[in-house]
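Minutes, project check-in

Agenda point 3 was the complex the collaborators sent over. CS summarized: two entities, 1234 residues total, and the question is how they sit relative to each other. Sequences were read into the notes so everyone works from the same version.
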Amino acid sequence: MKKLFFTLLIALCAQAVIADSGDSYYFQRAEEAYSKKDYDLCLHYCQEGVKANPKDGKCWAVIAEIHSKRQSGRYGEALQAAEKALEVLPKKDLRWRSFVHAIQGDVFYKISDFAASKEAYLAALSMEPENTTYLYDVADVCAALGEYDEAIRYYNRYLEIQPSTVYIYGEMAYAYYKAGNKAEAQRYCDLANTLGSGENNTAHRVLSRMAVDKSDYVNACREVARAMFISKTWLQEADTLVELCPDLLAAAIRTEVAKAPTDVETNATAAYCTFTMHRYFDALYYLHRKAEQSDAPQEVYPEIAAVYEDIEALDEAEKYYTLAFKTDSAEHMLRGLAQVARERGEFQEAIKYLRRALQETPTEGKLYYLIARNLYEAGLFDETLQTLDTARVLIEDEEWLISLYTIRAEVFEARGEQEKMQQELAAAQKMRKADDKRAEFYPIDALLGDTAALERHAQELEQDRQAQQEGGWGTLAHAYAILKDKARTIALLRRHQEAHNYNIRVVQVLRRYAFLKDDPDFKALVAKYENLLSEHLAELNERLGSRDTLQNKIAELPFTRQGGVNHVKCSINGLPLYFVFDTGAADVSISSVEANFMLKNGYLTNADFMGKQNYVTATGEIHEGTIINLREVRVGDVVLRDIKASVIKNQSAPLLLGQSCFRRFGTVEVDNKAQIIRLIAK
Amino acid sequence: MKRTIIWFLLICLSAGAMAVNTKESYYMKRALEAAQSGDSETAIQFLSKELDENPTNGYAHMWVAILCTRNNSVGWAFQYARSAIKYLPKKEYEGRSDMNILLSEIYLDAKDTARAITYMEQAQKELPKAEHPYRVLVRLNTQRGDKAKALHYAEMALKNQPESIDAQLLLTDALEENGQYEEALKHCNQALDMAEPQSKDKSRVYAKRALLLIDMKQPSEALADLMRSTRIDIWDVSEDILEQLHDTIPGEVLDTVLAAHEKEPEQLFWKIYLYDLYRYRKEYTKAAQMGFAILPQHNGSHIVHHIASLLEYHIGDPELAERMLLKQLGVDSTSSSTYIRLEELYAETGRYREAFDMADKALSFNPKDAEKATAYQLRGRIHQIRHDYTKAIDDFLAGMIADPRDYEYWFRIGRLYGEMNDSVKQAQAFDQGRKAFAAAGKELTPEAYVAMGDSAKAYEAAQKMIEKEDSEEQHYNAACVYAQIGASKEALFHLRKAFENGFRNFYHVAWDMDLDSLRDMQEFKDMVNEFKQLTEQEKQALRATLDLELNY
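CS then shared the predicted structure for the full assembly.
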């Protein structure tokens, strides 16, 4: 939000400046570039401007602004330019001087020097006391400094000037909450929600925090779920709740989805949130729903594939990676397919995929590492070492390097070359910091034979739920597998599984776990996992199947040919209607006559109306159509649910059966001889 | 609804004001035309153009505020209402008053009573003759316990509009609230004198006086007023008055209404009164017969659900209830409450697949929070019966999210976690339930103690429950509690009490897992059979008198 104001401000300033005939040529060119969002060019002109005239304060100001906005944060240069601008800008030019002070405030804020930031914002505000952006900035930085009463004062001044800015009520609520005044916090939350519920999430976040303080987890989950669906992302407040009441939070997410079950963004948010909660099957359900409703379902397939891969549902993962690969040959799709092959123990196949990926990004060091670890599993040790040599040169990421040295050490261990193994371990150890808790070191400690360190890691993990969920127990199991400690390895794999991790299947094919192969406890663990997985997958498929009854189905639709077009009979929400079968139409569409009839007779409700969309007809004309959701479309004996359709504002518009219906099927066949259209499920 | 009425009033008032007082520009004319034809979007576009040309046109600000309210953009309405007050001419009292009312309503929705009162007071100052601000001010001051101020505003309202019936009734309310019954009666009588004969106002004032007379312990006079009021029109309060009078003079009320019904057998309101009176008297067969007499004249969802419940709970005839509800879906296929009623009926009769379908349907029609919770909870109970505890817990949790006041479900959830041997989650759920009850200032229910395995406290709490409310529902609940803690003697006693008091939902008895410990007992079987036989006669008698095609 702050950024938005900032952009608006610069746009306003720039507009004012253009009108000022005293602006330099360079500044005017810079302004043109800025309006086209070509910030590099804008910076270039400003730099030329200050070279030509070091007293061009506006150019200095824009240089400061652009440096302050850079993602890499060239904050030093921004501050220097701001200093220069303030040196040369006329004292009376309060608008530009305040603007520069605000840039200083922003930079200090970004580097967390809140005291300096506050001073700079106050300087800007003193020059333009009615500027609501500066009032917000000062209030915000006061809140960051924990000076909530002062923040409240500035927010109040803001509201005196712009009383309908809804999010400020939320900010006020937060400030009051932090200041310990819960009654006022509640009042401002109510006000924020009355003035614009659904526009701003802060009030819901504050309500959630207040509910947590009262141990009222029902309302806490309700409010945080609302906030997450407004901001369409996971929020910090949910971290606490996922620890305290994960099932309740999942229920709250589910009830939020029930408010707009056919909305793509809603399902995307639900998928993201449930994935963050490690509820993979819920995430998969929402991702499938997202794909169903999306105009470009293939864009969702990589996400679906990745989650299937996470839970080791390898057939499904492969299916969706392959579907995505047809439309997008990106490297990560190949990586995904390689991972599926590896988890099946098909290491050569995995290597093939990774080498294809390498053709797309030949300098990607991590791909060499991935190839090497498959070579290691395939027993090709020389090639493993050679490939790791290349990877070592290209990889910068420390965690990957530690894993790289681990494989090298394991190769040498397998060959009985103890000295070389020690060298590799020593290289890894160099990257170890004091009190280093990174899981990548667990196998290193095992290879060093440091069992005391492994015990310590186990104790640390016990206290760290997040590390457990990120697969900590699995990595520790890996370390004990190096030591060939059957009991510990199996016990840790069990803990790994209990922490909702699913990488159990893969251990059956890895060299390191070969010693467990015939162990009955290990077999029982794998069997339990397989059962659990297939049970959850069956449940998921049942949930997905209950949406549409088209799995493995062929819908046969008799058609009649009239006036050169095919007419078929379908029923919409129970009302039988004849449609023109039109593979060229994007959606199912009905005329306003049918829509009105359906509405009056209860086949449609107000809740089914979703918004408006423009349509281009075959003659090239644009028509505006109302978008509705058809809860049930019966095609032959197949029932499809939640199909998007448009209502054309034309009483004589034909009823079209278009792609939003066919998309759910894989193949469409027209049998002209039998006068039957066959819709065959994917 | 309250707000919709106010916006409608605002639009009418403002349109009048504008037509009289403004020299309209082209954009304003176009905006007004669009607004009056219901095209808010176009109206706002023209108003924006007007404001670009004339940013201090208070009328344009006012109209944007009104249209934004109509479109539910409350934030913008708030801003424009404030600017309208700033720019409207000082003498534009009506518009300024309306904008203050709008701001007051926004604050009222945000539960900020103090600011709501401030703006309403401002509205009243701008237009002292208008009645609405006084009514709101009386209500708000009464709500916050400032009876003197409420009385003051009621007196002011009457002073400003001495000929207004509403002002007389406002003062009647304020005086009644203040315990000044004789004074209140005086003003109520004045209102009655002012009302036209046979007018809705006359009926309304009679209903008001009936309530006042009940407070003044004059039930027979109150009954006479209720009958006078009803002959002209029937009001929301009428049923309350009837129930209160039935509690005091039951025989007299029934005789009076029967006589009226005999005299005017086609009048719907006497049938409605008789339906209610037979229910209060637990004469359910007669009530059902009267209900069926109502349906050809009035078949709204509310009455249909009511009669269906009566058939199910008191006549023991779920088949007939189902037919009524299915027929009702033909009238309104989008009624989530009808789907929920059917979900419950199917659940209790073991038709789980159909119950799930009904739950899905109900949830797809955006039900209210409490209904949504019921739909989830019923589904959860079916999962529980099928021992699918994970799904049951999911549904119970979703029910609680939909309506957080159902915190008793924490104990059900705790119990299910217990069934799943997850003692940690069980303890957490119980803890949540205890905290929720404590936060609401309520004592734990007997069911909660049962869930936590505290039989002694469950026993004690069930006793208290019955002492507090001696109804068939509470006897049934007590039977469930006692059955679960193994106190079968007490359970059977209270189950009999429930039956004796008119409970006849045998399908529910068969479905309810809480009664499982009694099922093999001969006494239980005999009791159920005894009442079933009794009911069978009632049921057949009832069916014989009904048109089973439900031709209403």
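Noted in discussion: The interface with chain B takes residues 162-166, 187, 190-191, 193-196, 199, 214-219, 221-222, 225, 245, 247-248, 250-252, 254-255, 258-259, 261, 602-603, 605, 607, 631 of chain A (CB under 8 Å).
Follow-up: revisit at the next meeting once the mutant set is ready.
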